[in-house]
Design a protein that fits this description.
By secondary structure, this protein is α+β, with helices and mostly antiparallel strands. Helix content is 17%, strand content 37%. It has one domain: 2,3-Dihydroxybiphenyl 1,2-Dioxygenase, domain 1, CATH 3.10.180.10.
Length: 132
């Protein structure tokens, strides 16, 4: 098996999360794995939405609980898009909250957002295949 990365996103409810990510960034719903996991695709990447109740503990020994208000984590998802302006409009229409102006860096343009479940994400457009 070749190396790859799979992204898991905790959400309080699957259907509204599927609807958001389909509308906001164009993910493709693949299937439900159980009543609490949905498999999505974005290009060659797999995203899994995991239904986790608010106030549940992320691990058995964790003191903190899940909170779906806007929060910060050092890890977030960047969705690479072909047309940043169109992607920004699509995300906002789907209910994303824009959190930055366009940032240009090394041949890329990026705008940051939050989803309705408190997670930050970025839309990024490259001039080529990656950063210059």
């Amino acid at each position: 098996m070749s190396a790859r990365v799979v992204v898991n996103i905790d959400v309080p409810e699957l259907v509204s999360a599927i609807d958001f990510y389909e509308a906001a960034v164009g993910v493709e719903f693949r299937r439900f794995l159980d009543d609490d996991v949905a498999e999505l695709a974005y290009g060659a990447s797999a995203l899994y939405l995991l239904r986790k109740p608010a106030t549940s503990h992320p691990t058995p020994t964790a003191a903190q609980v899940r909170d779906f208000a806007r929060h910060w984590t050092p890890v977030h998802v960047d969705f690479v898009v072909a047309d940043l302006d169109a992607a920004v409009a699509r995300a906002i229409a789907a209910g994303a909250v824009r959190e930055s102006e366009c940032i240009e860096w090394r041949g890329s343009k990026c705008v940051t957002f939050s989803d309705p479940f408190g997670h930050g994400f970025c839309l990024i457009e490259f001039a080529g295949e990656s950063y210059a």
